[in-house]
């Protein structure tokens, strides 16, 4: 999702002489490099980040100065049922946006009365496989130092070879918000200096279009569908309790019709008793 951009043109009443532009100053060492960060959120969490009429995501972009984008509601990270958030901008702006989003999601986690424990959630970063070496280090030295410094849990998943051509891995962070943000700061600062990482900045959701993957199931588990030039027919049988069948069908069959229209190929849904 993109923020609304406006351009303004000034037209003076009297013609004025244009002064030559000042010489461009060389970039300073303190100037932030443009970077990006991607992480996963559930469909429900994505709705919370967007807000009614896009109000929340617009506010987060305004507060942070970063650009926030989400994959479409049917574009999931392969092997999961989670959407992808991409945040781009300077490092400080990107970190601010990440913190706003995670804090928002943490605030919506239900807590029991009398429970003073700080709510927690795992954060799964999406990192190109080619750049993972820069945060692992020789013999795992860098990731160990990140864990010790941030006190967050950091785990890098192996590359999922069940999806041909997938080039991203997941970096899972656990801990308090402060610990996770410290870890993200360390990781993002390291990745920004990696040339392999910057090369992938302009193709955040390319695999979503390539796989056209639909994953449905509990806790992220699901069946993988991969479409190619050849027409392949897949059949999946799912058991549904009698008391829940009405939710699947919908009033007047509305839900079934919407499911059948999710894809232009028109998947068919057959109910059996």
What would you note in describing this structure?
The chain has helices spanning 43-50, 55-64, 91-107, 129-136, 141-150, 177-192, 195-198, 206-211, 245-249, 254-260, and strands at 35-41, 67-70, 83-89, 123-128, 153-156, 168-174. The two termini are 42 Å apart. Helix 5 (141-150) packs antiparallel against helix 6 (177-192). It is 33% helix and 13% strand. The chain contains ten helices and six strands. The chain is of the alpha+beta class and 273 residues long. It has a domain at 35-106 and 119-205: TATA-Binding Protein. It has a six-stranded antiparallel beta sheet with strand order 2-3-1-4-6-5.
Contiguous uncertain segments of 5+ residues: 1-17, 24-30, 208-233
| Major sheet characteristics | 6 strands, antiparallel
**Fraction in helix:** 25-40%
Task: Summarize the helix and strand pattern as letters.
Answer: EHHEEHEHHEEHHHHH
State the strand order across the main sheet. Answer: 2-3-1-4-6-5
> How would the global form be characterised?
globular
Beta-strand residue percentage: 5-15%
Beta-strand segment tally: 6
CA(first)-CA(last) distance = 42 Å
Mean pLDDT: 75
Which structural class fits the helix and strand makeup? Answer: alpha+beta
- The CATH architecture of the domain at 35-106 and 119-205 would be 2-Layer Sandwich
CATH C-level class of the domain at 35-106 and 119-205: Alpha Beta
Kindly identify the CATH topology of the domain at 35-106 and 119-205: TATA-Binding Protein
Evaluate the radius of gyration.
23 Å
Number of helices, where a helix is a run of at least 4 consecutive DSSP H or I residues:
10
Region (Disordered): 1-32
Keywords: Repeat, RNA-binding
Organism: Salix purpurea
GO molecular function, one term: RNA binding
């Amino acid at each position: 999702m993109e923020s609304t951009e406006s351009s303004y043109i000034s037209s003076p009443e009297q013609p004025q002489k244009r002064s030559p532009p000042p010489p461009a100053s060389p970039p300073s060492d303190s100037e932030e490099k443009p970077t990006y960060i991607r992480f996963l959120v559930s469909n429900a969490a994505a709705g919370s980040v967007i807000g009614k009429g896009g109000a929340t995501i617009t506010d987060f972009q305004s507060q942070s100065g970063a650009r926030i984008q989400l994959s479409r509601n049917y574009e999931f990270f392969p092997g999961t049922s989670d959407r992808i958030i991409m945040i781009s901008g300077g490092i400080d702006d990107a970190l601010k946006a990440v913190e706003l989003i995670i804090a928002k999601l943490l605030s919506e986690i239900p807590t029991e009365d009398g429970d003073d424990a700080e709510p927690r959630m795992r954060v799964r970063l999406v990192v190109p496989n080619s750049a993972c070496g820069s945060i692992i280090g020789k013999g795992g030295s860098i990731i160990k130092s990140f864990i010790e410094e941030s006190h967050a849990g950091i785990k890098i998943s192996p590359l999922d070879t069940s999806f041909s051509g997938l080039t991203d891995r997941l970096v899972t962070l656990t801990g308090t918000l402060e610990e996770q943000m410290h870890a993200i700061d360390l990781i993002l600062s390291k990745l920004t200096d990696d040339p392999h990482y910057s090369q992938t900045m302009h193709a955040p959701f390319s695999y979503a279009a390539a796989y056209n993957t639909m994953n449905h199931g509990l806790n992220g588990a699901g069946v993988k569908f991969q479409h190619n030039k050849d027409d392949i027919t897949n059949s999946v049988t799912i058991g549904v309790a009698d008391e829940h069948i009405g939710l699947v069908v919908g009033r007047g069959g509305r839900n079934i019709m919407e499911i059948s229209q999710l894809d232009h190929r028109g998947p068919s849904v057959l109910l059996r008793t």
